[in-house]
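Just wondering, does anyone understand what follows?

——
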Amino acid sequence: MEKENIAVGLDIGTTKIVAMIGKRNEYGKLEILGVGKSKSLGVARGVVNNITQTIHSIQQAIMEAENNSGYKIKDVVVGIAGQHIRSIQHSDYISRNNPEEVIGGKDIDLLINQVHKLAMLPGEEIIHVLPQEFKIDGQSDIKEPIGMYGGRLESSFHVVVGQASSIRNVGRCIQSSGIELSGLTLEPLASADAVLSQEEKEAGVALIDIGGGTTDLAIFKDGIIRHTAVIPFGGNVITDDIKEGCSIIEKQAELLKVKFGSAWPGENKDNEIVSIPGLRGREPKEISLKNLSKIIHARVVEIVEQVFAEIKAYGHEDPRRKLIAGIVLTGGGAQLNHIKQLVEYITGMDTRIGYPNEHLAGNSDEEISSPLYATAVGLVMNSIENKTQSAVKFETTVVPEKVSFKNERTFEPLVIPETKEEETVVMERELVIAEAHAKPESTETKIRRSFFDKYVDKIKDFLDNAE
């Protein structure tokens, strides 16, 4: 019987940390087995700034996911974001020794490894090298070069770069939480996997993921990633503005934003007022919803305009680069009332809210199919692609009474040994059974190595040697 491929994604956000365990069902859909969520302490704008608090938050999320699913987590694919992320376009080529041989995977790997040697700014390292179109002997616009003949293999690349120290800090937190790091994925790419269809990626689409600390952008055209950016503002700055503008505490500001907030001031009448309880016996505060939406509107406009500047930098006005599918909004910030209409008004582009439910099994919890969990769902999908066995079922050990019981592997009756001879026979028999069941694990299918696997290994080596 084929072993279950249990995948785990860990979304380390500024507001929340989500651990999600899932597997692919017989219909190819993602079945979520368990979710753990904890308040993110020690992360600011997608970057770890307090190791101890982050470890504690990760452990809480992991424990909750394990308790909900009945699976013990071994390793995770983690999302990387933060204001230190930037992307560059780069072209490179290799000259093949034997043009009479067809181009294979080794040639592509050689070309990608060459890009990995690019000189970066001090303290920066390459996270992703994503090939775009290939060119063989001057013939351009080739999407799949494998199997073709040619002497000179050339490609344009989308290279994602980040601060090495920030990425290693994330690795350190995960390792210190008692789990392994099996993969790194740029968060906007994970969100894109969860909420975008292939048709949208072909037509041209901009994914805007509005998180707590950052707003991530990923632009696709002709099915290929064309541009990524991380804007260091998110939902938290809106909450801060409400807190300052209305002179209330952060918890109340967040509740106001979620329950009554709107990105469009014209929606609220002047006489709509919410009463906020005062602190320690003080008089309650009355907040006008019109003023509240004006505060939110000003900050959301600023965020959207910064994202739109990145879309313009990509060159969406060029007919060949036109984003026919428009904009898809996801992340917790996408749940703000009337944000879709505001984005359409500012950009003039068709906009929809992106839900990860297209890839989820039909019986999934409604909460999981919210834009809030888009990145976590995408990370689980990424973990499935890596074909790692990231979690195993908890072994429940029962103290047996002095009666016959069934062996949990073979379901055959076993008798509690009463003499030394009986004990030896039972132990030998158990060893034979254990060996027989261990064989499939030792002959697991080879894990498909993705472009950033070597980078993950490098982080592990760094953490192991850094004492």
Q: What stands out?
A: DSSP finds twelve helices and 22 strands in the chain. The first strand starts at residue 7 and ends at 12.
